[in-house]
# Entry
Amino acid sequence: MSRADEKLAQKLAEQAAAGRSRRRRTVDAREPGGVRVTVEGRECLASGARFSRYAHGDVAALRSRLAWIGATARTLVMTDGVFSMDGDIAPLRDIAAASQETGAQLLVDDAHGFGVLGATGAGAVEEAGLGVDDVPVLMCTLGKAVGTFGAFVAGSPVLIESLLQRARTYIYTTALPPAVAAATRESLRVMRDEPWRRSRVLEHAARFRAGLADLGLPSLPSRTPIQPVLVGDEAAAVSASSALFEQGFWVPAIRPPTVPVGTSRLRFTFSASHTATQVEQLLAALQALCASGVLRPAASA
# Structure
């Protein structure tokens, strides 16, 4: 285990961690006969596992799907911790309970929660009060809040050793450069020693949501740094994005097939490096777009 892996393991309550240089969404160990159950349905099917979906964040639907699969199947439930397009947090406690009821294993991809949520920044799993018994497999990227490159899988020593020996997506990839590993260790130190950064970014998100409510703009129930504003029409979303860019704000327009038809949106993301003044300037820019008709408040949409 490298020093960077050791730091990650310490951060994740002494779970083992295996770093990797590319972010892939599957644990592809060529284990046939299992069933994968996921929220978003983007996982690779090359392992030979059967695949089934359940509705976004719908634990009742998950329980129904697990009952249909049956307790005798080797089942892996997969979910994001924080959803990348809506910014909402998965009901991890309920998902973990549903998984345990049928003997299924749970994998959480916490790319957008790690470094932001939880008492120490360990992510949505920490915030939910869950441990390795509840979430046997935890995946996180190092390219978002950590600010470096690569990703890791955390779990039991048996799981990590199995991945090291059998997972093609680990074996046949390039190792992280030493400089990146060193930078990651420093980022983990910052996460530990400077919790004000997490507080600041969540404060920015909360202020932004309050401003959206004042403007009457439709948002989604997110308290994370991912703050979408629903526009609906694809062309309108692109126009709003372009107008914001002209004012110095880079806000991507998210359109189908990334999101369902009719739910195109502006995807705002905040960081600790943003200032309260910049958040107010952004809200003023949105107010101007509403006044000019580029954006329409929910009541007039």
About this structure: Residues 22-43 have pLDDT under 50 and may be disordered. The first strand starts at residue 16 and ends at 20. The chain has two domains: 3-193, 196-300.
